[in-house]
Amino acid sequence: MSEIGCYFFPVLGVGSNLCISIFLIRVEDVLLYKLLEFIIVGLGFKSRYISYIQSPELMNKFLIFSALCLVFVSCATVKPGPDYSKLSAQELLQEATQIAQSTMLVDGHVDLPYRMKVGGFTLKREVLDVSVRTPDGNFDYPRAKAGGLDAPFMSIYIPAANQAVRGASKALADTLISMTERLTTTFPDKFAMAYSPADVQANFAKGLISLPMGMENGAGIEDDLANVKYFHRRGIRYITLTHGKDNLIGDASYDTSATHGGLSVFGEKVVAEMNRVGIMVDLSHVSDRTFRQALAFTKVPVIASHSSVRKFTPGFERNMSDELIEGLAKNGGVIMINFGGAFLDSAYTVGTVQVREHVVNWLAENNLSRSDPQAQQYIQDYTSKYTPFPTVDRVAAHIDHVVRLVGIDHVGLGSDFDGVGDSLPTGLKDVSMFPNLFAELLRRGYSKKDLEKICYKNIFRVWEAVENFAATQK
Fold first, then answer.
1. Which residue, 157, 137, 263, 254, is CA-closest to 214?
2. What domain range includes position 32?
3. Which of 19, 27, 326, 333 has most Cβ atoms within 10 angstroms of its Cβ?
């Protein structure tokens, strides 16, 4: 009878040295055969493999192989992540800041281009110097660097009023795109254009802030489908189908006219053309019916570049219902959470109405106008004291809701900085404050890998899927 000896394997395990001694018995033993037969069948292998154990030589090799597998499994160490629940608030913030600084952070919507236009900057005047800290607004280079922001999508915003004048929407879009490009040529050591996830990654490696662009309001396309490809060539990488009013593409959430009953026939062609050329379909601002129809029509994942959760703002169609979020997730898309107060909490909207009513009454009682210096100071003080601003916790609650509903792979950040005025949450007043949100998410049990998905991996997945589909259409 053949007999197998004793094998000894020293194994480096997790935190200590483990030794596994494998003593092998006579292979002819009936009990061993039965045991191995049970294992083979239990693991779902075909019964023909049972015959292999009849050979002592094969059995010897089998047992040695099994021992080696056990060694490899024992050597596979899993380093546990830090236990954030045991960190102080200051330690959490330090950890969150480190994550923000070392991780690519994409913001789906920043209104700097239109802020420059409102500030009087045009193609004939030098751009706003956001290479240094600015006294107003929510975005500039120093604050973006402090907050770890690497790729804010520049919103090429087309007001709905432009839709009334043929050609005005496209003209404004061209102007804002050129102004954005000028930022990168004026401050090439700080900003760079980005037309793909690969561009963002390359700029990140160089320490540059990327300026990808999305057009807010498909009215810029006018009535010419060829403009979809034109704007792709100009660098637009998502188009928000509508804005404040219904347009030629479809119905908007803020408009009750229901002009098309959802997505128009022209809108269907626009979505198909966006898919074809490689522009992400953005369903922020559209009506629920437009949302559902566009979702059914698109052949690639979509985004909501700056929307939040309707659960916290009942009746506010601009935010997304659970049904729409589930549909978005099934499509493979991403909802990017808006930081505006009205998007985060109905209490903010109610509170601001009450503040405005008080101010109007106070002005009347004191026979003052808003332009009076005394009135301006009072309004500023009263508004600051009594406006019920949301907090960072509320932003985290929106993220939590999406994650519980559809998972971590379908949420991102779309702040709407420079676009929602003085309505931003306490602790998230500008781009330097992203670490405050990350600290709150860490406190709630999110991991660094979770934050990476929220920061860039989810939106990159959609962006790359759109690029890949477009590559097959050429």
1. 157
2. 6-75
3. 333
